[in-house]
Amino acid sequence: MIPSAFEYHAPTSVAEAISLLGKHGDEAKILAGGHSLLPAMKLRLAAPGVLIDINKIAELRGVVINGSVNIGSMTTWAAIEQHEGLRSALPVLGETVSQIGDLQVRNRGTLGGSLAHADPSADAPALILALDAAIRVRGPGGERTIAAGDFFTDMLSTALEPDEIITAIVFRPLGAGEGAAYVKFAHPASRYAIVGAAAYVKLDGAKVSACRVAVTGAGPKAERQPEVEQAMLGGDGGDEAIAAASAKAGEGMDILGDIHASEDYRRAMVKVYMKRALTTAVGRAR
Questions:
Q1: Model confidence over 139-190: pLDDT tens digits?
Q2: At 35, is the pLDDT very low, low, confident or very high (cuts 50, 70, 90)?
Q3: Which CATH fold topology does 178-285 show?
Q4: Tens of pLDDT along 211-244?
Q5: Which CATH number applies to 7-53?
Q6: Where exactly are the structural domains of the chain?
Q7: How do residues 62-101 score in pLDDT, each as one tens digit?
């Protein structure tokens, strides 16, 4: 199908994009990689009167590693996957990206676009939560930083204000005694997560001193799993400890069922994939 008519703008700076958002209000939509918005427009599920294409804003692209890992919001999945510095500073990021869609998707899709869209089956949100990343945004009132744990509010909803744009995502590199992993049960066609689990573990000697885990694909949004985290803390990170902690995955979550997987199946798989993610993360931390 053909989208309904719209006005098109291609700003070359963040300030210009923010100005356009303020001018056009609810009529405007930001276009990043386009993998979510354009199909919705073609099906007439979305009909913005104004498209603001931010692909020409050079300051939103690139990776800077200097004590922290700063990734511009318009950096493509392919650029992240291929970045040599990220392979040593944060290898789990490239590993996660390699599971997203196919080559064509990774060449166009962007980290910031995925986070802003907040698809409940997307891969990046779970990893963002487990790594406790920070999302930098800019609007007419200036810049602010949103903690990953505060960013995803509901299905396809975030803490972004309508006139704000994500400018960068900031991570802390992993060091000795730290490990992270992301695993998923992928839909065979779309490669979206039917269930995905991300885990971060820090070992202090033989004991787990820090743990963050998150689930995607199972509920209306990616969510941390505090019961699992608490169960891991202070333990030895062995098989029995991981199995006991993983059994708590999904507790208190609103688990969804659909044509791809029932609620009961997803609830069972949350525990299975959480165990796999934790086992890998602990192994990498040792």
A1: 999 999 999 999 999 999 999 999 999 999 999 999 999 999 999 999 999 9
A2: confident
A3: Enolase-like; domain 1 (3.30.390)
A4: 999 999 999 999 999 999 999 999 999 999 999 9
A5: 3.30.43.10
A6: 7-53, 58-171, 178-285
A7: 999 999 999 999 999 999 999 999 999 999 999 999 999 9
What pLDDT, on a 0 to 100 scale, did the predictor assign at position 127?
98
Average of per-residue pLDDT across 8-35: 96
> Where does 58-171 sit in CATH, by number?
3.30.465.10
SS3 string, the chain, reads: CCCCCCEEECCCCHHHHHHHHHHHHHHEEEECCCCCHHHHHHCCCCCCCEEEECCCCHHHCCEEEECEEEEECCCEHHHHHHCHHHHHHCHHHHHHHCCCCCHHHHHHCEHHHHHHHCCCCCCHHHHHHHCCCEEEEEECCEEEEEEHHHHEEECCEECCCCCCEEEEEEECCCCCCEEEEEEEEECCCCCCEEEEEEEEEEEECCEEEEEEEEEECCCCCCEECHHHHHHHCCCCCCHHHHHHHHCCCCCCCCCCCCCCCCHHHHHHHHHHHHHHHHHHHHHHHC
Residues in contact with 117: Cβ distance below 8 Å, sequence separation at least 6, in sequence order: 36, 37, 156
Pull the structure tokens for residue 88.
């040593």
The predicted model scores a pTM of 0.96
- 239 CB neighbour count, 10 Å cutoff: 11
